[in-house]
Input
Amino acid sequence: MPDSPGWSDEHKETVDWMWAEIRQLSIDVGDHPYWKSVPTDIPVKTRMQLKRHARPAEAPEAA
Output
């Protein structure tokens, strides 16, 4: 198989721009005034519930 030509400079710039956009949007969401109106324990509990649903406990192996 021939080597991959890799990413062009345009592709690299696009990926860098997208990651910068993701970082900024994450900051914007986290700093949104809405979160000042929500008691601190609610987002923490909700996040933990989401994590449990995303990664349910593994079932024990059958003997």
The radius of gyration is 21 Å.
